[in-house]
Amino acid sequence: MVKNEHYVPRFYLRRFSNNDKIFAYDLEKGNMFQTNINKIACNNYFYDINPVELKKELEVYHRIYNLPDEYFEKTSDDIQFIEKALSRLEDKFAGMLNKFEKDYSLLKDEEFLSTLFLFLRMQSIRTRSFRNGLENIATQTTQWLKSLKIKNVENYPLDLDPNEIAKLNQLKEIISLPSLYDKSKKFFGNYEFYVGVNNTNLDFIISDNPLLYFEIGFNDICFPVNPKLAIIMQVPEAKEEFKLCNIKPDGNGVINLTNKEVLKYNVLQQNTNAKYLFGSKEALDTFNLCMIYVYMNKLITMEQDLNQ
User: Fold this and answer.
1) For the purposes of burial, counting CB atoms within 10 Å of the CB of 226, is it exposed (0-12), middle (13-18) or buried (19 or more)?
2) What's the pTM value of the predicted model, to 2 decimals?
3) Is 299 a residue whose pLDDT tops 80?
4) Alpha helices of the chain — where are they, by DSSP H?
């Protein structure tokens, strides 16, 4: 049984590490430290779920795919069903990303794109930050209902701890077919896909909530594959001012990014309700220096405006 379950996969953290050692910048404390990828972006038994609740949520698959009862009972009785399912997806996508780094044409391959979508979707809703938001909602809802002296609510387990309600709601979202279908229509119907090549002196960094903007549905989304390569997804009908990158791709769908675009995408990683930023020490140091420079310029501009 897996105890330490990662909400940012180790294979993905490894791409921004050196020999499985990665630097993390704590956005709350303002300090940087080095750690092993096995010890960060994880919680004990984070995805483990009561088999009774799991069976309820998986019943739709039982019906749609006409699964044998014996197989369904055995599979849905596994408390670590979610952890194992996510691990299988990670293993498949990790191999695909290794190939993509050498062959950009995979961005036109149907299987690669479908697996990319599944990974992006899962990663956007499986994090600690996503759980925290659900915990806040559950806590406020429970307190409000109890303040009204309400003891029973249909489809709301008022007897459960709000943190358990949040966990259950997160895992429901992860295995929800309607939610997955709706998101897939928007993804494949709205976005065009490009290769973002980063030959600048700035590396891509990531956070422990790296794909919040995928879940929100931004017009311009950057998925860093490694510090020097990304997959960029843009809504072609969006106005230029609503995109972070306005550089036109070449005939092969490759966008050669400048420092400006890399910094913009890195800033998004910082503004994701995340706790940590990840990368090399040099990348995080450079990013912090850039942010200090940006903030100083803003202060200077504000002072000049006030003096006018």
Assistant:
1) middle
2) 0.92
3) no
4) 10-14, 51-64, 69-76, 81-100, 110-125, 128-147, 162-174, 177-190, 212-216, 259-270, 281-307
